[in-house]
Fold these 2 entries.
Entry 1:
Amino acid sequence: MQSWLSSNVSVPRRKERLYRREAATMRNSSRKCARLALLSGFFLVALFYFWKPRSKEVDISSRQDTPIKKLFTGKIGDATNDYKDVPYHIKEEVASRLAQNACVCKADEETFHLPLSNLLFPHVWAHNLDQAFLEFHPDPESVKQHRADEYNNFKERSYNPADVLHVAEANSPLQYPTQGVLVRPLKTIIIPGLALKEETRSVHMVSLTATLGSFDVAAKVDMVSIQGVGEKNMVLSSPLLSALNKQLQFVTYTNIVFHPKTADTIQFATKDHQSFFTIKIEHRNNPKLYNSGYQTEYNITALVTIATKTFLRYDKLKDLIDSIRKYYPTVTIVIADDNEHPQPVTGPHIEHYIMPFGKGWFAGRNLAVSQVTTKYVLWVDDDFIFTANTKLKKMVDILEKTTLDLVGGAVREVTGYTATYRHTISVEDGGKEGDCLHIRLGYHHAIKGFPNCVVADAVINFFMARTVKVQQVGFDPRLARQAHLEFFIDALGHLHIGSCSDVIVSHASKIILPWSKTDVQKAYEKFRYSSSATNAKTHNEIFYFKNRFKCMTSQ
Amino acid sequence: MQSWLSSNVSVPRRKERLYRREAATMRNSSRKCARLALLSGFFLVALFYFWKPRSKEVDISSRQDTPIKKLFTGKIGDATNDYKDVPYHIKEEVASRLAQNACVCKADEETFHLPLSNLLFPHVWAHNLDQAFLEFHPDPESVKQHRADEYNNFKERSYNPADVLHVAEANSPLQYPTQGVLVRPLKTIIIPGLALKEETRSVHMVSLTATLGSFDVAAKVDMVSIQGVGEKNMVLSSPLLSALNKQLQFVTYTNIVFHPKTADTIQFATKDHQSFFTIKIEHRNNPKLYNSGYQTEYNITALVTIATKTFLRYDKLKDLIDSIRKYYPTVTIVIADDNEHPQPVTGPHIEHYIMPFGKGWFAGRNLAVSQVTTKYVLWVDDDFIFTANTKLKKMVDILEKTTLDLVGGAVREVTGYTATYRHTISVEDGGKEGDCLHIRLGYHHAIKGFPNCVVADAVINFFMARTVKVQQVGFDPRLARQAHLEFFIDALGHLHIGSCSDVIVSHASKIILPWSKTDVQKAYEKFRYSSSATNAKTHNEIFYFKNRFKCMTSQ
């Protein structure tokens, strides 16, 4: 601006001073303006940067009680208390099968003692875990309280409104979805199946109420008035029932309170009737698929990793590896090793992991399985020997073609005796003292199409499984020495388990005369089978505290 | 017998011969009897031993279609096809929010280019994962087919009848439970809430039909006749409605076809009406509780294990350990180490695991976490430094008091810049080409009671989490080099995630002038940041194949 003034016009001195003063004023103003603009700019930027629409706070401390829940709990109470005066006679053989929430820890009574009776009629043993664990504990009351607190927290975190009992009222004019409605977190869906079926009246009215979301409509129908659009409570009314019902086909639900896995209980009501249904709020189950190559024949190397743990038995481990390589030269073998003085275990497709000395059996299993990058993992013990009967394709086949997650094989001792170690496991409610765990020899069903295979809950320690599923269950690293069924107890409800007797691995001979044991063998047995008191204490703690059992019965 | 004959009586020789013959005959008969008894004994034993009641075979090949499902799918079709003639006007702003099962891979349009615009208004990038992965693949059609096959198998295995849409019919005289009914596998329950509410007639009749179980009654009510007791189809009828309804309060369901996690769809019908509801067949969620001792103050050593992975940065690892020990002298530190030439890392409460050279980042993370035996695990990178602001008790506190499974902290660079790296993640259905993954900076909500904490879907690599939950999600060992958000993508729907900005760990300085880098630093950077083409290919494969995404948009 200054240059413009001085270059263009010649003016008298007084006017020049005037102009100079004006120019100075204008410069000052400009500077002020510029400063103001700059400050405003910064202010706007700061405002934008720091002001994000503060979404409502969420209370994530406890999720079990909502106002809506109280409404329908009352209605269920009414529904089940009717007909008090009608007499009935208990049918004992059925009533006795009902869970009482008070399981009793009872062994079989010994009815007769024939030779071999335990072989033919395996006796059921009962083990009072609570007594066993608590009686040596310095402060049993505190432990009980601690377990109760941990369990309550666990239940609060696992609580899902989709598991609560709902009863559909009879003779209600309301039509609504009772299951199968799902919305991804913070997304919108149309609620299917809503309708009102009542006789003609001057006004037909319905209302919808939610807790974690709001309602709207994806299309508008004439002659229907709607209040509460975009709110948690929406009321629709119309003199025409067909218009109202058409409008109800466009009602949407938007989840607005974020939670990755919960449900919203919706009340759908008209003047004299109420119904309740659930909208699940979840991410859909994301798959974890493995690209093992598209081939007509099973490519065992691409599909399977063999996993094992070793301790003080490098000779047996070497025999195992040599036997695997006869039939599967390129399959990856993962070895977890907690020896005090680890030796190298090398070779193509061998992964050797060194752990702290004596870290333990299940820690090693969990480690080995955590490293597997193929669709299936085959567990073997380090003293197994592969033979021509160890046909892994059979295991892959049943896993590919059925809903099984894990399939056990058979282990053949040097005597010829072959074991599948099939067990069934069930849990019975026991109230606040803990539940009862029941383990029995046997299986549930044969499997159609697989004549040598059955469905069970636990199998022998030679099995192939879906890697993702086994990783999800895991081997509890707190179990340092002997453990086996604990994995299957943790797997209850998570793994669909089978057992095929025609996939056989051999067990290196255990028939060793005491005077011919090597020092290494003696050290191994001492380590594995000693410290039984500590071992028992750990097991009791796992069953009593971690799994919350008070009793275990087994054969 | 012979001695008796010869000792007691003196008889004539002919009679003696007779008696001898009789005795011989009797002896022969006895021997035959004895042999027969023995054979029968063995036969009975063998029969008992080998004859177990052969339970029906189970078909576990596919579980999606049942006869009952066809019945109610038809009814839902009817329910949603009514009112075709009523006109409507689409409400665009709502309709556009509905998932179309056809997500589009779209970046933001560049509307303006101010300096720092990406900082203030982070641009959304779109990445076509299917193109990126398939265009360099030798046989893209096979890969697509393989992925589709794997996904279909996954869906079949995950299918649960409890997820199928059901709609309650209006004006039905049937009352029945619509959710919340659960039976443990092979057990028996009373079905709650069944009733018939109709006007008086000569005979009131209801029927129940199941697929995986049978019906019975726990008590018998007079004047009610029942057909099909113990069968999959049971019919109850009575001239007295109150008697029928009292009887309905005692109806039991017994699961007879074993499956560890499924549901039976039950049809409950009367002459003119049908209703459908689900009985879940599941083991209840078995807890995995940790006995960390019952104390008033948080015992960090008993509650928390610190886990990390190290590679070529033993100096930084040592600084990390020293800094931890200033504040937490007895907390266990688990270290996964895939160096080519591992060095010893020793000290009390340190567990050092040696992996095959270069096995990788996420393999090491999965290993470390697989070894944790405390309730919580704290993840740290090997170049972090603990300070007085690294208050682990705050993290424990929010995990103890809320439903969060994982809480991230903040990482402070040497410049003073502190990052929480909060992101939100969502998945949009995309049909058979795959879904769309959307990652944005930011969070969902603030957390009531914890002023510096928010709920998000992904956080920075400094977090404390429930050990069991993190082990269940896992770190995919296929991700060898750079990876971070992949864990949170796998966690979607499984972990409730938070982030608190007031628990701060420092990051060892990364400001190193190029000419002052040590050989080790150069080797580290070369290893970590090189092979980016291979790295990108692995990432694309993981997103495209494993997670089945076709597109990823992010900021």
Entry 2:
Amino acid sequence: MPEESPLSTVRTLKALDTTCGGRPFASVLVVKKLAAKTAANGNAFFSVDLGDRTGSFGCTVFGDSPVFEVLRGAGEGRVVRVEGKVDFYQGRLSPRLARVLVLEESELSTPGLLESLVETTPEDQEALWGELGQFIDAIQQEELRQAVRGVFEEIGDTFRWSPAAVAMHHAYRHGLLEHTVHMARAARALLPLYREVDPDLALAGILLHDTGKAIEYEGSLATRRSRRGILQGHVVLGYQLARKHGIKARLDADRLERLEHIILSHQGEPEWGAAVYAATPEAVFVSMIDNLDAKMGMVQRALRQAAETDEFSERLPGLSAQLLTRRVPQVPPPA
Amino acid sequence: MPEESPLSTVRTLKALDTTCGGRPFASVLVVKKLAAKTAANGNAFFSVDLGDRTGSFGCTVFGDSPVFEVLRGAGEGRVVRVEGKVDFYQGRLSPRLARVLVLEESELSTPGLLESLVETTPEDQEALWGELGQFIDAIQQEELRQAVRGVFEEIGDTFRWSPAAVAMHHAYRHGLLEHTVHMARAARALLPLYREVDPDLALAGILLHDTGKAIEYEGSLATRRSRRGILQGHVVLGYQLARKHGIKARLDADRLERLEHIILSHQGEPEWGAAVYAATPEAVFVSMIDNLDAKMGMVQRALRQAAETDEFSERLPGLSAQLLTRRVPQVPPPA
Amino acid sequence: MPEESPLSTVRTLKALDTTCGGRPFASVLVVKKLAAKTAANGNAFFSVDLGDRTGSFGCTVFGDSPVFEVLRGAGEGRVVRVEGKVDFYQGRLSPRLARVLVLEESELSTPGLLESLVETTPEDQEALWGELGQFIDAIQQEELRQAVRGVFEEIGDTFRWSPAAVAMHHAYRHGLLEHTVHMARAARALLPLYREVDPDLALAGILLHDTGKAIEYEGSLATRRSRRGILQGHVVLGYQLARKHGIKARLDADRLERLEHIILSHQGEPEWGAAVYAATPEAVFVSMIDNLDAKMGMVQRALRQAAETDEFSERLPGLSAQLLTRRVPQVPPPA
Amino acid sequence: MPEESPLSTVRTLKALDTTCGGRPFASVLVVKKLAAKTAANGNAFFSVDLGDRTGSFGCTVFGDSPVFEVLRGAGEGRVVRVEGKVDFYQGRLSPRLARVLVLEESELSTPGLLESLVETTPEDQEALWGELGQFIDAIQQEELRQAVRGVFEEIGDTFRWSPAAVAMHHAYRHGLLEHTVHMARAARALLPLYREVDPDLALAGILLHDTGKAIEYEGSLATRRSRRGILQGHVVLGYQLARKHGIKARLDADRLERLEHIILSHQGEPEWGAAVYAATPEAVFVSMIDNLDAKMGMVQRALRQAAETDEFSERLPGLSAQLLTRRVPQVPPPA
Amino acid sequence: MPEESPLSTVRTLKALDTTCGGRPFASVLVVKKLAAKTAANGNAFFSVDLGDRTGSFGCTVFGDSPVFEVLRGAGEGRVVRVEGKVDFYQGRLSPRLARVLVLEESELSTPGLLESLVETTPEDQEALWGELGQFIDAIQQEELRQAVRGVFEEIGDTFRWSPAAVAMHHAYRHGLLEHTVHMARAARALLPLYREVDPDLALAGILLHDTGKAIEYEGSLATRRSRRGILQGHVVLGYQLARKHGIKARLDADRLERLEHIILSHQGEPEWGAAVYAATPEAVFVSMIDNLDAKMGMVQRALRQAAETDEFSERLPGLSAQLLTRRVPQVPPPA
Amino acid sequence: MPEESPLSTVRTLKALDTTCGGRPFASVLVVKKLAAKTAANGNAFFSVDLGDRTGSFGCTVFGDSPVFEVLRGAGEGRVVRVEGKVDFYQGRLSPRLARVLVLEESELSTPGLLESLVETTPEDQEALWGELGQFIDAIQQEELRQAVRGVFEEIGDTFRWSPAAVAMHHAYRHGLLEHTVHMARAARALLPLYREVDPDLALAGILLHDTGKAIEYEGSLATRRSRRGILQGHVVLGYQLARKHGIKARLDADRLERLEHIILSHQGEPEWGAAVYAATPEAVFVSMIDNLDAKMGMVQRALRQAAETDEFSERLPGLSAQLLTRRVPQVPPPA
């Protein structure tokens, strides 16, 4: 990627005053939204949202701009290098784009690049991915392990990069992988305490419970619900994946039904998206661990984002509360 | 306890036909309910419910019966040996009581007696109690450990025998102890995975979170909500206990406030009884583990009660579902 | 079927006085419930519910009765001819059974027999079934029609006899068939008014929307939810049927997805069982017609059951109201 | 209407850059909101919202402007021709108005004028109005027909122009008429299938069910709830209209009560505004058709507004979903 | 009324043993329910519920009994003197009736008779009625007072005897009168504190707010919802009464609309039956006083029914709680 | 306080045009929010919100500004005199601050100053405070009066200045005092009508019911929830205050428990914040009066803020309605 001038983040650009109008800039950004519109005079134009991890802005690109065709070819979710001049429309940052260059897939591997564009897991995703594989291997029952492996062979790469949600818990790159591995760790720790739960089924259920999200969410850089996501929902999509690979692996009908049931019921209550209420020991166990790790994931993220001096976070919708982010004093103050 | 004739359970008595009217019997039963009423003719009588683990029945005792004064002296929740004759009123079992003998406290220790009267934990309650003590000892921070110890010194014995609920999860003798120890075990297993949670506070919070129930529920053999339970609720009662002993142990104000908050928020949502939403990492953690173990406790009990041949349990209100109680086949059937 | 003595209905038996104890009787009844229990003395016995269209009663059959083995062989949902003597237990009818004979499948075709055992559609089920076939034929798009036909070839007979619900609308024999045909008629009448709705998809969606119930409900004479019904729910089961036969018929992916979506969304809202909200014109249309015909089905049944002199029905839970069953006066009374 | 210069729509004006400040313009607009305020210095001024079908903007008119008195005389909901200069306040379009001319009622009939100001039914409103009359004539029962006719003689013109809602379904000019006629068509199609429904009452109920909205909503160009709408609600207002004209037409008490009941119950559930639950066959039928056509009206509007290239609409609050607006492929793609 | 033998209450009869079968008795009772049924053999019979303040029982009267025609002539809600013999059916009291005599209206005035049949207000209903008249007279504004008076001239007597509810607060004879007078007293006490509330409108609104219940409930001795009650609800019925008499009294339109609004909104929220939310100072005030007195009425009744020795009442559904009925100690016990 | 130039309100500043950029101004304002942030270049800056009763604006103060240290020293909730030049950022008012002077506590007593900064009770707060004292004195029972007095000795001054809410009823300076006195007046007026309510307990309960809010809300000029408010909630905080001073005053256990219960239950339902449902006559009475005065407080405030010419207020969330603010006509218009 050519890097002639220092790149500006969106936060830097937004901090500029209107007196800076006309100043040249260059940035690497994601095409967050690209909507084709028609002006009152009949001319086509694009309303474009460009952003990175620090924020986003909108601008308009008319049909006669050289940039127009580049954007049309790029589409939403692509990473572009843009150059142009700072400008303001109705008081808001709205740069004039002079040049847009779509980055090749290979250029995305520049160290630190993706991290600068989107929020990502704080953990080492390579290690998480390896750990996921170990959890698959830990499933004893042959056909069950094959079924789980089959699902990840089909959707693995998408799964690996997907967020666990658009707006709630683990809503960032690799978030789905992180949440799944965390749940598997929690299950491993708890299974010796709940002997009535079949360890193989519980583990397989955890690994597969959210795989439908790899299909429900689309666009690794600009997440939105896909057509299949809207029309079927991740619960049914995940169920379908498990069913397909369970049959392929010749998993016995009893286990397959129990595995499917874990996925169909893991959202807890129908109004939260479950197809049925959890009705097996494994399904109850998995849905409770899902809830636990989802809530703790919100806690972890709020703590990461908290400034040293803050006492409380902003109100977190998923907890219906502000979180006390100040740590427990190590040396107790006098009572 | 005199044991001249073999004792009948309530189930045995109820299985009798109306043709058995007049047959003598003897049973050891709990006085479940004792309501003083006045007949239309102005005479006093008792409406009495007597029961054991297998069921209960009602009968009427008039003021001129020799049994009347014995029952008045006994009151609800006492264990009595009754002798009388089988009788039926309006088709239902309604024996005539000839003799009632209140058992002394010491007589209750007869092996198997209490177990025949009320449902109890399937685990060894001595061991559970010992384990609770070890969890208290495991709290590192001196004042916090003293505070927790103080609470159990005040309410320990009641706590040890109390059910965890009147009708929902762990609703049996020692159920509160069992549920608390199970939660502590789960916390110990999970704490290494959630490093942002202060282990001492989480553990102390778990041990104390439901201690208010030892005051909310009254009567170890015939559970009902006490006056303080109705007027304050177990959340506030437990908070008060923690506060009293925290101050006594000179626990620093910061930790005390966090400990109180765990208790005030552990029910999850205000409509389920929480005073506030969980707003510290420890409070979120404890409320999630509470939910997990409560649900798993319902699963465990349903599995214990399931007959070999049953496929599903009755509908369990706490799970909104029938539970599949048939075990996973060990040798998978052909797919 | 031997018919030596006149058969008694449950209503007739229940009208008997306790003075009739010992009177012999014979009835043809359904085994509604058959629960194996163990008495306090360790002996096995059955708690049996027997019933016909006019009601049901319970009785107990001990392990040493000759009838015990016959019932064990029969199981729930079978039709039996019972002979015995009228008896009462605790004031309720509880006959002693001397002889139980399981009816063969072929004997069930005796005219009027099934109608005497369970409530059934008021319409000619042969005609309804024929009409269903015509609606299938009316689907123009070749692969779509094949997919629908495939589903009915798989589950047709069960579908034909199944109720549409355990307790709400069309909760009687052939009720599922009746409700589906009524919806198809309504769609045919409305499609010319809503031109944005694809007629083929809407019709196919209606015919298949509730087919999962043929699997969810089990036992044509004593309806209960099957294992698959509890673990997956009829929405997912119906979706699976449509998917299987759609793929088999090589239905194009776009139409298949829309067809599956109609089934997944027809319950209207997730809290009523929908997997997703209706998000295509056809899905909105079908879910609204489903709602309309379900409610009108409750109206029709209440009117059928109303006595001439009644003004209102009992409160109907599905309508949250008592229904005014008195007809509109044909000649208006003076204002 | 004088038309010296080409008129600008609001969309055109908003597309202008701040560099266009001072450019003269002329537009025909609706006075959407006119709020009298007092500045900190005690001077009166108007905060005015002006708009057309393409959008709206706010501006301020001080008491010493020649335009002030014209606006005061006009009031909300009038159509005005404005001339002025483009200006911006705090980055937003906020033109200075030099001249405001209130259009006479007669000028509003200029072809295309009203359509340019507010969204309107896509159908021919003359034809809809004629069809409504035919539905009235189709009511067989003499007094019932007279009652319905009486209501429309009282409120017809307002009804004809009114939207069916402020923000939900059919929320545009003539929307109430369109929705009512669509429901009547649906009823005509369905009545042969539901013979227990009295056709005359059902039709009369449909025609009158929403007539209260002609009173609840005020201002044909800038809709808002009227005083009577806020204090009584359209359900009670429509009931009152039906009652008044039913009595006037000497409709028999039985039919009148049933007709009133349809109106009082058509919203379905009390929490959605129904006074009582539907408790007659006709009331159940009408409330279900209302629901069907309301939802289908949202579908129809979303399809009209969809661009060729869109796959889904925005999220529609009334459907709780994005609608798939792409049509079913006529020639199926390969499976 | 002939009084040859001492009368038995239902409580007395129910206290009898099955050994008392055949004993003659006489009682004065209300016909609570009278349902015409047809036996399996085609014969007509009545299923009758008879009761007094102490309880009720059911019995069957066949078409060939001399009592059959008397009951048919009497109908539900009439007071009858019955004579017969004690009998039991299926263990429950089910007397054989030998003679039934319908009491004349004049005989109902026998002192103490009605009080023995139904629960009634603990206050002097004559005094309450007089006080209601004084509150009407206290309305200053001439037309408003005439409107209120007009309503009570139309429905006064029914209003005077009606309960305020079937099952919730003030659910007893004269309860509606008692509740209305109590609210008027509370308003008189509070009006000096809330000067923004128009006293005349508030008082008129209170007096009329529940008058629709005099039409909604039917049968002074055996309360049930009338046809108009089911089809319109007391809110709309009361609104209609106020409107009719307001117009008759030439009440100005502004006041009439505000008065109607109080009635339409007094239930608080649409889901509790309000047609609209309270939107005037008077309507907010009246709905709050209604809520206050309804809740306090439940408290008063629970205290009246509490035995000296009770600490808590049963759970009161309207309060979602058991009420502490033990009085505050007058001399405080030592702390 | 130096007053060289006339002070501008926020409303005046916001009315300025962008053409006024650079104009000098001076204002006395509250520091509503003060957030320390770090720019992309690593420099510290403050994002500051300043406001008075007429509104607020934000501006940015960089670390090298002389004003930076003054603001850091001041903190949120302090009153400052600011001088600077009018400026705009992205079209919004965003003045450059040249000088900030923190006002001393003593300067806040300048007549009219605080009133210009925050909304306050319309009543004389001195008189309200005196009246509160009289209500305390009116409690007859010695220990109860001492307990109440004790609470106000501890938190009196904070209580006196606190709002009753952040956003709902009585959400302004002294609002808590005003609401409490209004409730006490209402109780005094109603107690003679509800004789089953203990006057001393009811009065004490009212005076203390919301005292926890004096701890829950923090910052008299810029209200926000305190740490204790978030972690415990005002219900528990008030309960703790009552308990502490009740024990100190040696109040008998029975009365103390009833007093605590009033506070724990006054919010009505758990989902609105009550710890338990009201279960004593006094608790039901207090929670109803709380609800009444809260709603009437919203009415009173809407009427105060209504312009002469308004017919309705904006929609009030607490009433779910727009309020009719136009007064009842004194001379009725012709009907």
